[in-house]
Amino acid sequence: MVLVTSSSIVLLHLKIVCILVQYIVKKFKKQFRDYLSNRQQYVTLADISSAYGKPTCGVPQASVLGPLLFLLYVNDIQNYSIESCVKLFADDTNVFEHFSLIFK
After folding, report:
1. Beta-strand pair 48-49/44-45
2. pTM higher than 0.90 for the full model?
3. C-alpha closest to that of 68 among 20, 36, 30, 34
4. Number of domains, the chain
5. Are 31 and 17 in contact (CB under 8 A)?
6. Which domain covers residue 73, as residue numbers?
């Protein structure tokens, strides 16, 4: 007779999730790297467009994966010990730094 408890079911589910995550990371690592690198973007305001620029951080805007990648990107940002004040709200992150200006 095999005794199945709720904790053993939870452990089995966690193991399955870990296996799936490892598989997804291995399978799609190159695709995600390509998706997040060598991007270009521009800004348009009142029918005037800027030159193309290459973003060095962040996630692609107006994409299906954007919201999920943003959550993965900033979800644990407040767990890092940094000297700055980090404020998260919806899809916006602000980092505040305190400094003094000294004029002579």
Report:
1. antiparallel
2. no
3. 36
4. 1
5. no
6. 57-104
